[in-house]
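Record Cation diffusion facilitator family transporter, 296 aa.
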Amino acid sequence: MDRSQQAALGSVGIGLLVFALKLYAWYVTGSIALYSDALESIINVVAAGAAFVALRVASIPADSNHPYGHHKAEYFSAVFEGVLVVLAALAILREAWQGWFAPAPIDAPALGLAINGTASLINGVWAAWLMRRGRALRSPALMADARHILTDVWTSAGVIIGVILVTATGIERLDPAIAALVALNILWQGWTMTREAAGGLMDKAPDEAIVQDLKQSIARNAEGAIEAHDVRIRHAGAMTFIEFHLIVPGEMSVADSHAICDRIEAALRDALDAKVNVHIHVEPEHKAKHDGIVVL
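=>
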């Protein structure tokens, strides 16, 4: 089990603990807003489990049926998590709608807020750690899980404020109103997560800054070549695929052109500090397009 899988499994355990605390907070208060917060937390548990499964699949080596590997399994996990978030938001909206027409007082607000606040603190610390780990491992599944948990933290903060307002003002309808606002925020986050994961499945290009850095790396390490063009870069989970055409003098030997390719590949791996699959198509100088990367 690698580090990313261990992190996902840790999210399952943390999620169960937080869910239990928030469910108890709802039990002692009867607050719809706290119920909505607890409902989102159980989604965290399911999503973390899905992330763990996806990371297990993504770690399977390439085979005859999947020659490029199984890295994109992480994006399916992120899409699944986004859909779960949207469903949770719709369920909360339903509860808020019913609570608006049948408002009820909140019992033991101080105890409920203390329990919910403890759960939120645990979530916040874990989300910060998971975000750093996801970036370090370049894992879409862990990043999606961290963003979801962070959304849960902000949701909990809104719920706590809402319960305090209900207690202070005595306006019971503030409880379902806050729950509805929480649901709309969750709905937006679910849409954002699904859109980003879909971009990965559709081989969306990396950020322009990353593309330019890699092109500069090619230019600096292609001495002996003339130019590089038709550069294409995509991420698939933790793996980065890079391919381009390298123009060399027509009289250059295969051994010399291969040495240039090896040098470029090594530089790209160092630049990304990650798993890289580089494919270089060597062509003679009459194939130059004069609109690609000029070798420095």
